[in-house]
Design a protein that fits this description.
GO molecular function: RNA binding
Mean pLDDT: 80
Number of strands: 16
Protein name: Methenyltetrahydrofolate synthase domain-containing protein
Number of helices: 14
Keywords: RNA-binding
Oligomer: single chain
Low-confidence stretches: 1-6, 266-310
Organism: Nesospiza acunhae
Radius of gyration: 21 Å
CATH class of one domain: Alpha Beta
Pfam family, one: 5-FTHF_cyc-lig
Length: 392
């Protein structure tokens, strides 16, 4: 069934709704690569069909610069923008290297080349970074969602990056209050969402595209007015440490006389005068991410469960590592995916490694992020270590 079944949402938290959507997409056979969809903006059967409806929107026809998120289900939207010869802006994944990149197809690009440019690899190969001083004027914003209501209330995957990207664009002057926002989802992701679940920092949407419907929400709720530094739900010290461009923007707003104090201000992250950040700041919330700096085999020794409390450690098994892979390459991938473990036990000769996490949530984020990842041509096998599975 194209529309799937309606999902209950009354009395549910945002996280309840996310879990119900992810579970339903998997159980009903609607989920598409990358799998599992849990923890992601989910890709779904019919995503390309839903993206094609973008061309029929007048706001798309008028737009010259279109910002589309990098999620897999929005690949068709990126392609539509490129085929229409519009300027395509794509946020850098997790905002690690800037705010967004501009995709510039090669001169005389064929249809096949444009399709490649629309993929995540194409974005990396054919994009140029857009700095804070750029004069970008985004005419249309396309975001992914885990769930959305016909009134325009949106729920993302829970990390706040889409809301943050929009707030940063407001601060840069790249979007206005009337810049339309479109989301593309499966029909089963459209459900009732209580307005009280929304915060001031949450982004709302004006159009919803599904494989079978185009919904204009006529949403009157104001979109975020910029970055709300003082709200814990908007910006945290941990997020500030992970996003260098956010730190730069904060420094600029402080210079302009704006109050940029964070609710959870941490002394180690309080110096906003530096645009660059160190590894220690990036991982401030996860102390001792690898072995001690002086260790000859950095990151090869796991935490001693007896000293830390074995029931507090969740271990993730990573198998099918290619024989040519070096531990530094795996650690680099973990940093890129923002799933740095408290300790890493490397067993390269056995083509495996074990990642120890102090928090179960961090371990499950690692499971989701590493699913489908290939290193050195090998698709990794990722699961909870046997000791964890035996605990249930």
């Amino acid at each position: 069934a194209a529309a799937g079944r309606a999902l209950p949402s009354a009395g549910r938290s945002k996280w309840d709704i996310r879990e119900e959507v992810w579970e339903h997409l998997e159980a009903s056979g609607l989920a598409e690569f990358p799998r599992p969809v849990r923890g992601r903006i989910p890709n779904f059967k019919g995503s390309l069909q839903a993206c094609c409806s973008l061309r029929e929107l007048e706001v798309f026809s008028r737009a010259r610069e279109v910002k589309v998120d990098p999620d897999k289900p929005l690949e068709g939207a990126r392609l539509a923008a490129l085929q229409a010869r519009k300027t395509l802006l794509v946020p850098t994944p997790r905002l690690r290297t800037g705010l967004f990149n501009r995709i510039v197809p090669p001169p005389g690009a064929t249809k096949e080349m444009l399709r490649r440019c629309a993929t995540s690899q194409g974005v990396r190969d054919f994009s140029v970074p857009v700095g804070l001083d750029s004069k970008a004027q985004v005419d249309l914003v396309v975001v992914g969602s885990v769930a959305v209501s016909e009134k325009g209330w949106r729920i993302g995957k829970g990390e706040g990056y889409a809301d943050m990207e929009y707030a940063m664009m407001v601060s840069m002057g790249a979007v206005q209050q009337d810049t339309p926002v479109v989301t593309i989802v499966h029909d089963c992701q459209v459900l009732d969402i209580a307005e009280e679940l929304l915060g001031d920092h949450d982004l709302t949407v004006d159009y919803i595209l599904t494989p079978t419907r185009t919904i204009q929400t006529n949403c009157k709720r104001p979109k975020p007015q910029g970055i709300m530094w003082h709200k814990a739900s908007s910006v945290s010290s941990e997020m500030l440490g992970k996003i260098p461009i956010l730190k730069t923007l904060r420094w600029r707003e402080k210079q302009a006389g704006k109050d940029v104090t964070l609710q959870d201000e941490h002394p180690a992250l309080a110096d906003t005068s530096r645009a660059a950040i160190s590894d220690e700041e990036v991982m401030a919330a996860n102390p001792q991410p690898w072995a001690a700096p002086g260790s000859a085999h950095m990151g090869s020794d796991p935490i001693n469960p007896k000293s830390q409390g074995s029931d507090t450690i969740t271990t993730v098994y990573v198998g099918n590592l290619p024989g040519s892979l070096r531990v530094s390459q795996l650690k680099s991938a973990l940093r890129e995916l923002q799933v740095v473990p408290a300790a890493l036990k490397w067993q390269g000769a056995q083509h495996r490694a074990f990642l120890d996490y102090r928090e179960q949530g961090a371990a499950h984020r690692a499971l989701s992020s590493l699913q489908g990842l290939s290193l050195g041509g090998n698709a990794l096998r990722v699961e909870l270590a046997k000791s964890q599975r035996n605990k249930g």
